[in-house]
Specification:
Shape: globular
Number of helices: 0
Order of helices and strands: EEEEEEEEEEE
Distance between the termini: 40 Å
Radius of gyration: 13 Å
């Protein structure tokens, strides 16, 4: 059974930092592309950042230079370090695990709320 469990969300002030984590079980973590997405009410889920099995990273333009995605294969965990947070970063952040050559959307966590106050 695949499980992705996010943690680390919370309330932070404008300009602050927060680090969210996602720990996976039930998959061969090291071969998966891991990603962070976010969603606000009434909007589609959007890509924030991804990291491949060879640690190639990509970011949404809105978070470049402020967010950093990383992974620790020994701990089956992917992280998202968020700096210089803005109110528009407020969302539920979801972890995604995508298998090589996957034809579906992969596996999802339950989400963790990040709220940035102005």
């Amino acid at each position: 059974q695949v499980q992705l469990v996010e943690s680390g969300g919370g309330l932070v002030q404008y300009g602050g930092s927060l680090k969210v984590s996602c720990t996976a079980s039930g998959i061969i973590f090291s071969i998966f592309t891991m990603g962070w997405y976010r969603q606000t009410p009434g909007k589609q889920r959007e890509l924030v950042a991804t990291i491949t099995n060879v640690r190639s990273r990509s970011y949404a333009d809105s978070v470049k230079g402020r967010f950093t995605i990383s992974r620790d294969n020994a701990k089956n965990t992917v992280y998202l370090q968020m700096n210089s947070l803005k109110p528009e970063d407020t969302a539920v952040y979801y972890c995604n695990a995508l298998a090589p050559r996957a034809r579906d959307g992969g596996y999802w966590g339950q989400g963790t709320q990040v709220t940035v106050s102005s």
